[in-house]
Design goal:
The complex is a heterodimer of chains A (377) and B (292).
Chain A lengths: L1 E2 L2 E7 L5 H25 L4 H14 L3 H24 L7 H18 L12 H30 L3 H20 L25 E2 L2 E2 L1 H18 L1 H11 L1 H6 L6 H23 L11 H7 L2 H8 L7 H21 L6 H16 L1 H4 E6 L13
Antiparallel strand pairs in A: 1-2, 2-5, 3-4
Helix pairs in contact in A: 1-2, 1-14, 2-3, 2-13, 3-7, 3-8, 3-10, 3-12, 3-13, 4-5, 4-6, 4-10, 4-11, 5-6, 5-10, 7-8, 12-13, 12-14, 13-14
Chain B lengths: L1 H26 L7 H19 L2 H25 L4 H20 L4 E2 L13 H19 L1 H11 L1 H6 L4 H27 L2 E2 L7 H11 L4 H19 L11 H20 L1 H7 L16
Antiparallel strand pairs in B: 1-2
Helix pairs in contact in B: 1-5, 1-8, 1-9, 1-10, 2-3, 2-4, 2-8, 2-9, 3-4, 3-8, 5-6, 9-10, 9-11, 10-11
The chains are: A mainly alpha (377), B mainly alpha (292).
């Protein structure tokens, strides 16, 4: 394409420096937000008003900000659950199933303590809380591990398996907390029993302590991928499983490892939401909504391009957008599902922009032809 | 019992048409893991159009048209732009999930139209599905177009050299594939389960994907699998037909998914693959870029 003297040209990339990758991610977010403003236009709302409402509620409102932070921690953990297998070239879309398993794991521990129907039961928080986290991580990791094992051992497509496990997890958690299931609330609501007061997690700076856990996790994962042998093995398996095999990496172990780790973190996300969130402290009846929310992990993981540190700001942005989106939807009387529409639009722009991982646009300024060379006047 | 049989066949038809679409795409070497998304688009648009116009035919045309558009989109991403096919498919799934939730929400609830008449006691789509499956088998195995499609799926470089336009064939297959998935969504939303709710496919697209892997890329085996799965699904919905009161109804709902995983594992064992020679297209999922 020619613009004036300059020429725009598509050139194949030889490498992708990190700042270019970052620019692509930022552009894709901006493009998605511009496309998303069509949703506002469709509902007869000025997009600027819409975005103002979203961001003001999400980041500047006293009621909105804590909700944003809680959601962002959740999305961040789901992102990590996606990122680890993604680094190995595998797709974990089973965060929802691992999440349900994690919730059941955490509450299963309390069930064993006899917490059902006894909110005043005393369990030392120093024992109860870690045990719940371990329970959540164990259950999530086990569900994730199934997909990883089947992929590593039998080469079963992990997308299908994790999706089937999502459905299995959904019906299983429904069985556990509804219609007289073992974890059902004794009062008869279709949700789990309440956590005993003694193991309701403390707040740190007004946010659940899982925020600290998430931040530490980001640093730890970054370090693992950047500096350790196991991180290197995961990456090289992701780039080329066959070559990795010849260089002595066990191709059956890596999928199990990444899926178990991913599942454990998804389990932790469940603990965060159902076990450490102020005002929840039970498997709330809208658990399926959090299964849907976990899919943001896929998008955030792609935007952050597998980098756990980059996932922090990305999760914060999406935590804010979904939270503010819900608020704007109510305030501006838009149809249900504004945040879901954002999810879809964001994902597809991300896909298109992937093209620029391999190609770049360059400006070519043609050198002026010197017309009078060799002509003697 | 007859009613149960007819209902399970209805379920099989939806899965068979969707899986047939995926099978055609895969035979040409393009993997679309976003069947669920295309079906959601087809189901939602078909539902909305049929409800507003009061006409089933228009609804199905809308479902097929939106399927073709989404199929074309997958083609542009994965063939022209060369984006990773799994990434593109995932994008289509989540786009479908997100956008249809927003667009369809005002239409939540039953369709409110007279059910489509049955022919000989069975859904008319049963005959359509059979015809489509036979046609696909015939085209793939008995015509020169089928040979081109298969060669493009096996070895695009060689196909290109022998004068087949790889991209053109792949675009054709991807669009037809999208149309079939859209139609499957329409059959689901207008005939099998005509009550719109967000994400009301509940993973059927992924089951269709599993069916294609199960079928060893043969339309007839795929149909057999779809019939078995449909029966399984319907039994899980109403277990009282065989084992009344054995398990909670929620636990029964898990069974079809568990069996899907078990079957896929059995299919993937080395014993099975060496005995049955799964005909996986060699170039499946590999983007093709013409040299030069």
């Amino acid at each position: 394409m020619k613009i004036g003297e300059h020429e725009l040209k598509l050139v194949k990339r030889v490498d992708l420096p990190w700042w270019n990758a970052m620019i692509i991610s930022i552009i894709s977010v901006i493009v998605a937000l511009i496309l998303f403003s069509l949703v506002f236009v469709h509902s007869g709302v000025n997009p600027l008003t819409g975005f103002k409402e979203i961001f003001q509620f999400a980041f500047l409102n006293r009621n909105g900000l804590p909700l944003t932070i809680n959601r962002s921690i959740f999305i961040f953990l789901c992102t990590c659950a996606f990122i680890i297998p993604y680094r190995a070239g595998l797709w974990n879309i089973g965060m929802a199933g691992q999440l349900y398993a994690g919730a059941l794991g955490a509450f299963g521990v309390m069930y064993l303590f006899g917490a059902k129907g006894d909110p005043n039961l005393y369990i030392a928080p120093g024992i109860g809380i870690p045990l719940m986290m371990i329970g959540a991580m164990f259950a999530g990791g086990a569900i994730g591990g199934i997909a990883g094992f089947l992929r590593g051992r039998f080469n079963v497509n992990e997308i299908v398996t994790t999706m089937m496990l999502n459905s299995i997890g959904f019906w299983f958690i429904s069985y556990m907390v509804k219609e007289g299931g073992p974890f059902m609330n004794p009062v008869g609501r279709s949700e789990s029993f309440d956590l005993p007061l003694s193991v309701r997690a403390p707040l740190v700076f007004g946010a659940p302590f899982t925020m600290i856990v998430a931040l530490l996790l980001a640093i730890l994962l970054y370090w693992v991928f950047a500096k350790t042998r196991i991180g290197y093995k995961i990456k090289s398996y992701g780039l080329n499983p066959l070559a990795a095999k010849y260089s002595g990496i066990n191709p059956q172990v890596i999928p199990v490892l990444v899926f178990v780790l991913g599942g454990m973190i998804a389990g932790l996300a469940a603990y965060h939401y159902f076990g450490a969130m102020p005002g929840v402290f039970k498997i709330a009846r809208n658990y399926a909504e959090f299964g849907d929310l976990s899919f943001y992990g896929i998008i955030c993981g792609l935007i952050a391009q597998g980098n756990p540190l980059a996932a922090i700001p990305v999760s914060l942005l999406f935590g804010g957008l979904t939270n503010g989106g819900r608020f704007a939807q109510g305030k501006l009387q838009m149809g249900f599902g504004v945040d879901y529409a954002l999810l879809g639009v964001m994902m597809i722009t991300m896909v298109v922009l992937q093209f620029f991982y391999r190609y770049k646009i360059v400006w070519i300024k043609p050198e002026k032809e010197i017309s009078d060379v060799g002509i003697i006047r | 019992m007859w009613e149960l049989f007819v209902r399970s066949l209805d379920a099989s038809i939806v899965l068979a048409i969707a899986a047939l679409g995926e099978l055609i795409g895969q035979r040409s070497g393009v993997l679309n893991v976003g069947i669920e998304g295309v079906m959601l688009f087809g189901a939602t648009f078909g539902f909305i159009v049929a409800q507003t116009t009061g006409d089933y035919t228009t609804g199905f045309i809308a479902a097929i048209a939106i399927g073709a558009i989404i199929g074309l989109m997958h083609g542009v991403f994965s063939i022209t732009l060369g984006v990773d096919q799994v990434v593109s498919g995932m994008g289509i799934w989540i786009l479908g999930f997100g956008l249809t939730t927003y667009i369809g929400n005002p239409y939540t609830g039953p369709l409110g139209m007279a059910r489509i008449d049955r022919i000989g006691g069975l859904s008319p789509f049963f005959y359509l599905a059979l015809a489509l499956i036979f046609l696909t088998w015939f085209v793939l195995n008995k015509t020169s177009l089928g040979l081109k499609i298969r060669s493009v799926g096996e070895n695009p470089e060689v196909a290109e050299v022998s004068g087949v336009s790889v991209n053109r064939i792949r675009y054709l297959c991807v669009i037809v594939s999208g149309m079939l998935m859209g139609l499957a969504g329409g059959v689901y939303g207008l005939s099998y389960n005509p009550v719109w709710n967000y994400n009301f496919l509940m993973g059927w697209g992924f089951i269709a994907l599993a069916l294609v892997f199960f079928s060893m890329w043969n339309p007839f085996i795929m149909f057999g699998g779809a019939v078995l799965f449909g029966a399984l699904w319907q039994l899980a919905l109403s277990p009282e037909f065989i084992l009344p009161g054995v398990m909670s109804r929620y636990l029964w709902r898990m069974v079809p998914f568990v069996i899907t995983i078990v079957v896929l594992v059995l299919m993937s064992t080395r014993w099975f693959r060496t005995h049955w020679g799964a005909a996986k297209p060699e170039a499946l999922g590999v983007p093709y870029k013409k040299e030069g």
